[in-house]
Specification:
The protein is an alpha+beta fold and 318 residues long. Strands 7-6-5-4-8 form a five-stranded antiparallel β-sheet. A four-stranded antiparallel β-sheet has the order 10-11-9-12. Strands 1-3-2 form a three-stranded antiparallel β-sheet.
Length: 318
């Protein structure tokens, strides 16, 4: 089915790019085999409108023109859909090379490497790679271990609603969520999905490691507007615990919890093998503290301590 749609989109794009005058829907239906096979005018109209929107989403500039008889036609002018020559300096080439290395553990590795090869064939300068794995102990990698990453990435790209089972940290069983996915973001080594939760009628953020089972795609368009990508990233940052609104005091076992120590506002070394830290307290801190298990004890505030205890109990119950 995916191959058939891709072929249909390609045929429509070629028709619109190859014409010198606007083509009506009637003419397009008579030129593309998949449209000829559509059962009924309504089915064809829905298919055509979806395809037109998909091509525009992919970047094709499609003009809508009305002729003297009042009939609507469509075309994609070549001069409006031609990219200018790509010119990159050495620093820009190095940045692209570094970005391509980030995805070596994900399915995007092949696409990233292929894109670099095409750019180099077109004359992109070969920049000295200061991040060469043979000479550097630091490797620019974003690990992607969750099976949900790939289907969610494709759903975000194609603007397709999805359904999946999600288990909150303090819940014993997963719940089914119907989500309109907006964007995937990585914070503290964990991947998060931001989107519109249809059941709750509100924006939500989901940690991919808590998605259980398969991510299933659903037909239909989004029901809520997609906000600006910067706004979504700020939301993920807040939900992931990066935006602090107050402080918390914890006890941390000596020699443990270095990420917590790096974010601490103050550290008081104890003589009993435990240190006392003051750390920024924002949304998601309870989930982060649970990851350190018995090496962390929350002193205050009381609501954070209660949230951490609830999460630990849920983990203990399995």
């Amino acid at each position: 089915m995916a191959i058939a749609k891709a072929e249909r989109l390609m045929n429509l794009a070629l028709c619109l790019l190859g014409t010198r005058r606007p083509l009506s829907k009637r003419e397009l239906r008579g030129s593309i085999e998949a449209y000829m096979e559509a059962t009924g005018e309504d089915a064809f109209n829905r298919m055509f409108e979806r395809d037109k929107d998909d091509l525009r989403e992919l970047g094709l500039v499609i003009e809508t023109v009305e002729n003297l008889d009042g009939e609507t036609g469509y075309l994609a002018r070549r001069d409006s859909n031609r990219l200018p020559p790509i010119t990159l300096d050495a620093e820009e080439a190095a940045a692209l090379g570094l970005a391509a290395k980030v995805w070596q553990q994900a399915r995007l590795a092949g696409a990233a490497s292929g894109a670099l090869q095409k750019l180099r064939a077109a004359g992109m300068p070969e920049a000295e790679d200061s991040y060469d794995d043979r000479h550097s102990a630091l490797e620019p990698r974003i690990p992607v271990h969750e099976a949900a990453f790939e289907p969610l990435m494709l759903a975000c790209r194609d603007r397709r609603p999805v359904v999946f089972d999600y288990r909150k940290a303090n819940a014993a069983r997963p719940e089914t969520r119907q989500v309109e996915p907006w964007v995937l973001e990585c914070w503290r080594g964990h991947w998060y999905l931001a989107g519109w939760d249809r059941d709750r009628g509100a924006e939500r953020v989901f940690r991919l490691s808590r998605i259980t089972g398969k991510v299933r795609s659903r037909a239909g368009a989004f029901t809520a507007p997609v906000p600006d990508v910067v706004t979504v990233r700020e939301t993920v940052e807040s939900w992931a615990g990066e935006t602090a609104t107050r402080s918390a005091r914890i006890r941390l076992r000596a020699g443990c919890g270095y990420p917590l120590r790096a974010r601490a506002q103050s550290v008081t070394e104890g003589a009993d093998g435990w240190d006392e830290l003051e750390i920024p307290y924002g949304h998601g801190l309870d989930a982060w503290l649970v990851e350190f298990g018995p090496d962390v004890v929350v002193l205050d505030p009381a609501d954070l301590r209660a949230d951490v205890v609830d999460r630990l109990r849920a983990v203990a119950k399995g």
